[in-house]
Amino acid sequence: MDLREKILTYIEKNSRVDLRDLAVMLGVEEAVVANEMAAMEDEHIICGYHTLVDWEKTSIEKVNALIEVRVTPQRGRGFDSVAERVYNYPEVNAVYLISGGYDLLVTLEGKTLREVAQFVSDKLSTLDSVLSTKTNFILKKYKDHGTVIAKPQDDERMLVSL
Amino acid sequence: MRNPLSERIVDIPFSGIRKFFDIAAEMKDVISLGVGEPDFDTPWHIRDEGIYSLEKGRTAYTSNAGLKELKMEIARYLKRRFEVSYDYDKEMMITVGGSEAIDMALRAMLDPGDEVLIPQPSYVSYVPCTVLANGKPVVIDLKEENDFRLTAEELKAAITPKTKILIMPFPNNPTGAIMERGDLEAVAKVVIEHDLYVISDEIYAELTYLDDHVTIASLPGMRERTVLINGFSKAYSMTGWRLGYACAPEAILEQMLKIHQYAIMCAPTTSQYAAVEAVKNGDADVAEMRQEYNGRRRYLVKRLRDMGLTCFEPYGAFYAFPCIKKFNMTSDEFATRMLQEEKVVVVPGTAFGDCGEGYLRISYAYSLHKLKEALDRMEGFIEKL
Fold this sequence. Notes:
The structure holds two protein chains of two kinds.
Chain A: H1 3-13, H2 19-26, H3 30-42, E1 63-71, H4 80-87, E2 92-97, E3 104-110, H5 113-124, E4 130-137, E5 143-144, E6 147-148
Helix pairs in contact in A: 2-3
Chain B: H1 7-11, H2 18-25, E1 31-32, H3 44-55, H4 68-82, E2 92-95, H5 97-109, E3 115-120, H6 126-132, E4 136-141, H7 152-158, E5 163-168, H8 181-193, E6 197-201, E7 226-231, E8 244-247, H9 250-263, H10 269-281, H11 283-306, E9 319-320, H12 331-342, E10 344-345, E11 347-348, E12 360-363, H13 368-384
Parallel strand pairs in B: 1-10, 3-4, 3-5, 5-6, 6-7
Antiparallel strand pairs in B: 2-8, 7-8, 9-12, 11-12
């Protein structure tokens, strides 16, 4: 693993790590880490630094859905142009091209069930190349981005051992 | 009433950490850097195999020496990782942790009066197990100026006509010291010259941060005079499963197995099935944990040095062993005061032998977050001194 990959492996799990500490852990100068990270941001290898939130513990209600979309690819542009039309909606969280029984997997976040339903019926289904949609609502998130949502276990080790 | 106790047992002291455990257990918001086991959970695929074996009702004894499948996998692993070959059938046994293997090896090899060379600072069981096996422990004090490695000169100076066994506790708990190939070759030469045997406790073999660990058993002429001890606790984060193993020439192993058969019967069956999965498919987990430990190691050593402590570079296990002599306190005083005043637990070096005086064992088997908070407190404590 080269330095860039080591940086990425680390910050993918904890993007808030102090750069000085990260540099110490990797055994290099802080400036080296900072430069590599800036370069990777420019090259869009690092695409953002987000926070994993368990909205269930707040008063804000959110409805998340996974929508399976079958589409007709367009001559010369394949799935890209329809994907772009879909991902430009701000309520769309993610769009993936999928192998298997359907083409695009769209994840969507809305305030209410109705808002999600409206998006699917008014905006998504009406796109020319969309053949069909199937909406799956998320009932509970157990694990997201490699992180278990439930509160992590306390350290159960004895305080001192040899 | 007659005294129910054995004098020999009563004479063996309790371990030096009891006091810290008792004080710390009564306190709130204590941060401990005093733990000698990994902070990672056992990787899920390994736990899953343990659960699966229970579901299948595999709850009977295994053969005394352990599951054949496990021993075969361990033989492959030792060949793959450390270039040493053992006959899984005649030269290997599965034990209840590395600790049992240490005990069995000493009991199988010692006659009354035989001397056992024990480099210290080192794990606490070698001296009492030697005494229990009727042997005579002879301590070799390792030195910081040698990075706590054992030198051929130190070894030679300790040998008498009664010396039979040398314990090799590397990678070392508590110092984090390792022995590189050249260091081992120098020691092996003396061992062969004086016709000694070696019990090599390599439980931290997977956790080295310089080059890959070299086992002394792989050096020419050493396999026939070495009991190699390893296990699953540290490499795969499996401390609570209690599983280790010993490899030795058939004549020695046979006798160890005899004691094991009467005293233990066999290592836990569930753990053995889980361990098959660990040793077969666990290399990637080990590599990932090693990398994580290495980052924390660098962080810890840098912080300690920034506090003005001297700390030699520990290339193994998950401990640093900084020197606190400049504060004119014993290790015990330092550790006790730091616990009382800043609620940080570390283990005084003296818990691992008298020559640990002036040092502390600090474990980095903690998340960076915890490590940082504990070291901030320690820094505050030192500034007040």
